[in-house]
Amino acid sequence: MANSHRRRSADARPLPSEDAFHRVRGEDPLDAAGLEAVQLWIDAYQDMVAFEQYLLHHARRRLATLRSEPARRHLQEVDITLLEIRHDRIRRRLELWQQRARELQERAQPSLISVAPEEGRKPHRQAG
């Protein structure tokens, strides 16, 4: 344990388990990403969510076939739980990217000014 602590101190990067919203290598910061990057990361996270769902489904099916109750209990408490945590983390990242896409789309669409127009004039559009 002390050995891993020394390694951790020497390497200041956070471990994946330390950050609930750990980014994928090369992933753009949410607030700096444009629509093209946002779509790339939505696609990537959709693929990862589907992959994690596949792993969970098959792991649970296999777990049900184990003869050893101690093995089944351990795998459920540890391995399945870790898969669920990872799936939830990836799903939350997908939701963040989807929210970013909505924000960018709202900015790109002009909205009507809420002030009533003068008689006979069309309302002005506000640039977004």
Written overview of the protein:
The protein is mainly alpha-helical and 128 residues long. The protein has a domain at 31-109. 61% of the residues lie in helices and 3% in strands. It has helices at 2-10, 35-63, 69-108, and strands at 111-112, 125-126. A two-stranded antiparallel sheet has the order 1-2. The termini are far apart.
Query: Approximately how much beta-strand content do the residues carry?
Result: under 5%
Q: Please give the alpha-carbon distance between the first and last residues.
A: 54 Å
Instruction: Give, in spatial order, the strands making up the sheet with the most strands.
Output: 1-2
- Give the overall shape: elongated
Estimate percent helicity. 55-70%
Radius of gyration based on Cα positions: 23 Å
SS element count, helices: 3
Give helix and strand order, one letter per element, not per position: HHHEE
- The structural class is mainly alpha
- What kind of sheet is the major sheet? 2 strands, antiparallel
Poorly predicted runs of 5 or more residues: 1-20
- The beta-strand count equals 2
Arithmetic mean pLDDT: 79
